[in-house]
Structures are given as C-alpha cells and as structure tokens.
Amino acid sequence: MHKAVLATALAAALLLPLAAQAAERVQHGSIFPPWQHGENNDAAKRGLSFTVPQVDDLADFHGDVSDPKLVLYVGGNYFFAMAPLVAAFEQQHPEFKGRIYWETLPPGLLEKQIEVGGTVTSGNMTWTAKPDAYLAGLKKVQSLIDRGLLTGPAVPYVTNSLAIMVPTGNPGAVKTLSDLARPDLHVVMPNPEFEGIARQIEASLKRAGGEALATTVYKTKVADGGTFLTQIHHRQTPLFLMQRRAQAGVTWQSEAAFQEQVSNPIAHVDIPAAQNTTAIYAGAKVRNALHPEAAQLWLSFVRSPAALSIFERYGFKPFTGTSAG
Q1: Is the pLDDT reported for residue 33 higher than 90?
Q2: What pLDDT does 16 receive?
Q3: Are 90 and 97 in contact (CB under 8 A)?
C-alpha cells in the first residue's frame, strides 16, 4: 500500500507542472475558436453579440438561419477559408449578400444531419437548415451520390496533403511519422468514426512504418492514453497542442498554415511525398435542395480563379484531374 501511495504522489508531482502550464495557456481566450473574430458570420444584422469561448461558442455554424438563399454543408477541413470565399462569391453575386448559411462539421456528421432532414441540436438549441450543396472529400461525395442523398456529378476543385502539427519550438522533437509511436509522446489524432482524414493518415502511417506503426498510434496508444482522439474534428488538434495536452498531431497542411498565419503558437513538420497522402475535395448538389440554382452557382464558383487563389493562400492546389485520391 505504501508503494502505491508513493507512486500516486510521485505521479501527481510530475503532472503538476504540466497542469500549471495548461492552466496558464487556458487563461488566454484567444487560443479558443472561433479564431476569425466574427468574419465567418454572413449575417447582415447580428443583434446582441454574445460569444464566450469554451462556454457559449458555436464555432461550426455560420450566418443567419432564418431565411438563407444558400445553405452549404462544408467538411470542416477549410473552415478558415470560408469567410474570404463567401465574400468573393457575394462580390460576384450581390443578391446573396448576408444570405448564406454554412456549417463546417466533419463530413460524417453532416451526412447524419442530411439523413434527419437538416435538423441539428447543439446545447439547448435545435434548428433546421436543409442543405443545398455538400462539400467534402471526393470519395465521400461520390458515396453519397451513390446512396441517393446527393445528385451527381461530383465537382472536384482542389487537393490537399498532410503534415504533422506541433507546438511552436517542437518540444516533442518530432521529425517523422514514426516518432508518433514513441511512448513518451502524447499525440492527438482525428477520430476514424467520422473523420475521413483518419483513413488518409492511416495510409501514410503504413507507408512510413507498416501496419505496426498504424496499430501503435491508432490502437495501442489510444488504449493506454497516449493518443487522444478528437470528439469534433481536427480543429481540436491545435487546441490540445496549445494547452500542452499533446505534443503532435497529424492534420491537413492547410490547417497548420492557417494557425501559423493567425500567429497562434503552432508550427508543422513536413511529411515526405513518398509517405504523404493527397486528398481531392469535391462537392455536389443535395437531392431535393431548396435552392438548386444557388447550389450550382457555388459549385461553379469553387473551381473559378477567384476561389482557387483563396485556396492557394493555405497551400491547397487546384485539382487537375490527375491527382491521387
């Protein structure tokens, strides 16, 4: 018993500095989303402004749901690009100014929302926003077309690749994907249950270290607490890193680029091309959409030079028809 008590006390003593560091980070509300300071809200009249990070904060729901002229379900991989994209779209189509509503939940969750007619509950609030267009990975979009939830054809527009996100200074000394298996390294990873990126990450882990590496990161370390799985989507990855709950996590390189651009204490480690995975982003109209013409305008817009120039700010590349899926 004495040894058990001593071990518990020692563990607590070791954790106290980490807890203090995390508490210190939490005091700075700027590390919590929404990181765009209201820019991702397309509502013309916002009324009372009431946003409390970590408490009352609907970071994945944007705009005025009361009477939109276009409703977009966008996989959360580029939530940060939506504000400039919407602004550019509205410049070309002024009739949509202040009338676009969009969500940036993970693709799997948006799929479930489509299945229940567009209704969603967050906290004590329930509302319905039936989507006009759905945008995610090409394979996911095509699967929903095959199921009859979307109407084809799928419209591909950009590609993205992976990177290892780390805190500024890289305190875990992460150099390669193989480092993620280290028992001393806490990592945060997208949840395979509803995050398409997890499939690409597992493929890259296998390229870097075989089945053993993928199993260690996504099973063994999950079981022993060394790998945290996200509950929402990989927007949680930089939060875990900034709160010092983890020292690394694999995300799309564009997300690391965004965090660096807004001066959050985040950096990244490049993954070699031979181990990396490229994703193709695509969209399609939702079957029985309320605004099908508006959906088609958006799907045409995301392939336009104006939209592609915005995507390129974050490292996305235009889809050329030859990129790997």
Answers
A1: no
A2: 33
A3: yes
Average pLDDT taken over every residue of the chain: 87
User: DSSP H helical segments within the chain, as ranges?
Assistant: 2-26, 82-92, 107-115, 138-147, 197-215, 221-224, 236-242, 253-261, 292-301, 305-312
Could you give the CA distance from residue 199 to residue 205 in angstroms, rounded to a whole number? 10
Q: What is the pTM of this model?
A: 0.80
Measure the CA–CA gap between 237 and 256, rounded to whole angstroms: 10
- SS3 state at 246: coil
Cα–Cα dist 151/200, whole Å:
25
Q: Which two tokens stand for residue 321?
A: 């028809």
Q: Please, what's the b/e burial string for 143-160 (b: 16 or more CB within 10 A of its CB; e: otherwise)?
A: ebbeeebbbeebbbbbbb
Digit-coded pLDDT (tens) for 111-121: 999 999 999 99
CB 195 within 8 A of CB 310: no
